[in-house]
Amino acid sequence: MALSADTPIQTGIETDVALAARGDASAFERLYRTHVARIHSLTRRMLSSDEADEVTQDIFVRTWQKLSQFRGDSAFTTWLHRLAVNVVIERRRTFAIQRERMAPDPAVLDSLPVAPPRADLTVDFEHAIGQLPPGAREVFLLHDVEGYKHREIAVMLGVATGTSKRQLHRARMLMRKHLNG
Amino acid sequence: MHEEWTDKLSDYLDDELSPRERQAVESHLRGCAECAAVLDDLTRVVERAQRLDRRPPRADLWDGIAARIETRGAAPRRVSFTLPQLAAAAVVLIAASAGIAWQFADRAASRSADIARSTEAQSRASSGYEAPAEREPSAERSNIDIAHVSFADAQYDAAVSDFEKALQNGRRRLDKTTIAIVEHNLQIIDQAIEQARQALETDPANDYLSGHLVDARRRKLDLLRRAAALTIESD
């Protein structure tokens, strides 16, 4: 029986998702190679370089386990990324990093180092992001780098939308200082 | 720098302000070079953030992932049917059910359970097939309970074979119309069984397909049992 006769034309990713969901590890490896750069960049920025490899692996193993739950309501890339963000947030909570995330810290505006004299501006910028207070960094990365809306971030982090907005502004002001340094 | 205004600049940049607030900020920015400069800086920050590249890990992580997913086995399978496929399956089942109901509804009410028990006894003697416990009398009494039949191939095939033999032996006792209806419905059910088997070859761990196959096999056994019972009833 030709089960695929009436199915719509699929992209390469959709085909690999369907194959991987049926247990095809080769198809899943292709999905990994397509998405690993984005996922690893997310984990490296949200956590640290030391944790990024391990957490990236966790994310893809979790993806494999949950593929049967992917219903195609959104693009696979969107679904995977959301799963990755959840794993990262869970990790941060496990290590209680977020305990001080939303704590007011006016002095931090002066604590961010100004731009060091490096040739690679991207590395400088990433380094500066890494120096942001945890809460501000989370929101900055999710909003400005990853493109989530405040209402989505609020749900992910379990905070009010207003808190997300304040943390974003705080992060941007700190990064502004870095750029002007 | 006017903090009461700069605090609104991120929301302004993200279009999160009400029209009234937005208008007020724009009015202030026109007269405040310092706040306008802050807005320019924030815009640059956002643009830089959006341009950040995505870098893969320095070492390939796949081997570690592959080892973990192989240890834990294949990903759970999922059901994937198109609407036309589901509709076709529904038509088959409805047709089979309607045919069975039309043929037996008014005949089996009083005697079919008893007849079936005698047929079962014959089958049990030759195949080792275990009949289920008797149900309490109910509106469904005519539907012989085969819910607990094991549908493992050998046992099922033996039961089907017995009923087919009984039906063949008693065929002459049934009128042509009845035979035609029974055979037509068996054909429909066999098609459903075959389609489910073929689909399971493609997706062997699909729970829905497995259930569909078991259901179709149960329907076939039920139809054969009832038809065999009719041959006895007609004596």
Q: How many distinct beta strands of chain A?
A: 0
Rg of chain B over CA atoms, rounded to whole Å, is 35 Å
**CATH hierarchy, class of the largest domain in chain A:** Mainly Alpha
Order of helix and strand elements from N to C terminus of chain B:
HHHHHHHHHH
Query: Could you tell me the mean pLDDT of chain B?
Result: 70
3D shape of chain A: elongated
Cα Rg of chain A: 19 Å
Largest interface: A-B, 51 and 49 residues
Total tally of structural domains of chain A: 2
- What structural class do helix, strand and pairing data of chain B support? mainly alpha
Based on secondary structure, the structural category of chain A is mainly alpha
Reported for the largest beta sheet of chain A, the result is: none
Q: Specify the overall morphology of chain B.
A: elongated
Assigned CATH architecture of the largest domain in chain A: Orthogonal Bundle
End-to-end distance of chain B: 105 Å
Q: What would the CATH topology of the largest domain in chain A be?
A: Rna Polymerase Sigma Factor, Chain: A
Please provide the count of β strands of chain B.
0
Number of helices of chain A: 8
Give the topology, please.
The complex is a heterodimer of chains A (181) and B (235).
Chain A: H1 12-21, H2 25-46, H3 49-66, H4 76-94, H5 121-130, H6 134-145, H7 150-157, H8 161-180
Helix pairs in contact in A: 1-2, 2-3, 2-4, 3-4, 6-8, 7-8
Chain B: H1 3-6, H2 9-13, H3 19-31, H4 33-50, H5 62-71, H6 83-104, H7 108-127, H8 153-169, H9 176-202, H10 207-233
Helix pairs in contact in B: 3-4, 6-9, 6-10, 7-8, 7-10, 8-10, 9-10
